[in-house]
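Appendix C: a fully annotated inverse folding record. The material below is reproduced so that readers can follow the format used throughout the book. The structure is listed first as tokens, followed by the designed sequence.
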């Protein structure tokens, strides 16, 4: 990687060691963009960085950070500022989910989900958006979820956390637009990212049929961000579910979603 960082803009991807994070890194590397890959698992980050450098001849930085702690977020931001590294595009992708009844999960597990999905994302956005506003230039993509449109049985904390991400993104889209900063929410449905296994989620026949691959989901998010859109729901089936949520009473669409999700 080149040691010169002055006047170069970077794409920072959180949760870059798996799933959507890997695909975001690949698609931005294909554009020739310099990358900062952030996640907890150093070996996976270094392997991905080596692959991207070799295949696309781009600069790639690796930052092993546990974003569950806001102090770690602050430390990351400070290290990058000290090196005069300018983040032009922030992909807030890191997140954690868990399926099951709320009372069957420990309090620590639920709070850890909130720390990563809400507190960390808020801190990342606050610190890097301030830098972008000062330059009057920047892009932030918030990875929410189709579940952010409603409370979902056995995904109580996760769907609520993603609802925060979506509403937070919607508000900042309008707040920061005049400052030259674009904020867009990506709301994917079931995708083949390994999330289901990590969340111990049951894959129902319906979910298997509508499952999307990461490539088109990430491509839709990048295009929406570049176009300055407020949000995007990739995939026809997911769009239909979003419309159903808007057009029907809560008792109905939540009952439908419970069946879809195997609850």
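Designed amino acids, in order:
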């Amino acid at each position: 990687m080149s040691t010169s960082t002055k006047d170069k803009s970077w794409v920072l991807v959180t949760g870059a060691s798996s799933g959507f994070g890997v695909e975001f890194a690949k698609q931005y590397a294909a554009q020739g963009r310099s990358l900062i890959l952030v996640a907890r698992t150093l070996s996976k980050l270094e392997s991905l960085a080596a692959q991207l450098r070799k295949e696309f001849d781009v600069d790639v930085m690796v930052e092993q950070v546990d974003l569950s702690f806001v102090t770690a977020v602050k430390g990351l931001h400070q290290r990058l500022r000290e090196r005069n590294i300018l983040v032009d595009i922030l992909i807030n992708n890191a997140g954690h989910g868990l399926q099951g009844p709320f009372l069957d999960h420990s309090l620590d597990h639920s709070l850890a989900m909130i720390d990563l999905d809400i507190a960390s994302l808020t801190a990342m956005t606050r610190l890097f958006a301030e830098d972008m506003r000062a330059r009057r230039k920047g892009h932030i993509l918030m990875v929410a979820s189709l579940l952010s449109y409603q409370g979902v049985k056995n995904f109580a904390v996760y769907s609520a956390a993603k609802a925060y991400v979506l509403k937070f993104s919607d508000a900042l889209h309008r707040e920061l637009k005049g400052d030259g900063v674009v904020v867009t929410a990506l709301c994917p449905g079931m995708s083949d990212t390994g999330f289901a296994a990590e969340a111990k989620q049951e894959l129902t026949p319906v979910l298997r049929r509508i499952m999307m691959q990461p490539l088109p989901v990430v491509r839709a998010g990048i295009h929406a961000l570049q176009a300055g859109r407020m949000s995007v729901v990739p995939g026809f089936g997911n769009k239909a579910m979003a419309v159903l949520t808007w057009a029907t009473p809560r008792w109905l669409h939540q009952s439908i979603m419970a069946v879809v999700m195997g609850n």
